[in-house]
Automatic annotation (TrEMBL):
<dbReference type="InterPro" id="IPR002525">
    <property type="entry name" value="Transp_IS110-like_N"/>
</dbReference>
<dbReference type="Pfam" id="PF01548">
    <property type="entry name" value="DEDD_Tnp_IS110"/>
</dbReference>
<dbReference type="InterPro" id="IPR047650">
    <property type="entry name" value="Transpos_IS110"/>
</dbReference>
<protein>
    <submittedName>
        <fullName>Transposase</fullName>
    </submittedName>
</protein>
<feature type="domain" description="Transposase IS110-like N-terminal">
    <location>
        <begin position="8"/>
        <end position="154"/>
    </location>
</feature>
Amino acid sequence: MNKFSKYVGLDVHQETVAVAVADTAGEVRYVGEIVNTPEVIAKLVAQLKRGTGRLAFCYEAGPCGYTICRQLRELKQDCQVVAPSLIPWKPGERVKTDRRDALSLARLYRAGELSPVWIPDQAQEALRDLTRAREDMKHLQRQAKQRLLSFLSRHGHRYTGRSKWTQAHWRCLEGIRFARPEQQIVLQEYIDTVLVLSQK
């Protein structure tokens, strides 16, 4: 016996959410598209709860994160975020639309064919964001250093010391002079970018 009376599929985007509902009795219908704001989400929940039992919501994991899931759970609603790569699709379903995606999510969720992902709490997500940001900064720093070295190499400037990015290497970089002022500006821009990223 199903523990929910309605299974709600949400196709979530930054500005909008397409909504479909699969009733336990069998009907699957498209409700429509709403604006993706907390106020409108809360209004949707209130509308769907009228004269019914428990609701179950789901949407695909993606760039919009877990904000809607957390809001729905705060509203005492069941919500799962599901893995997009594990959603079963029929071979002929090549044309994807928000409406079709919402209807498919509602239908598959009711059938128990979706795989939920682990949802971090806000503290865990904040720590993960910090880790990702540091990794991003390190990646940008490596790119900036490579661009600087490539620029110098194109103009015949190669560091012959033992190790790059040491104090001796920085003294060498600061002593390089180009005949053209435009290229001196380029050099300084590259150096400044590396220095800024090194402080992150």
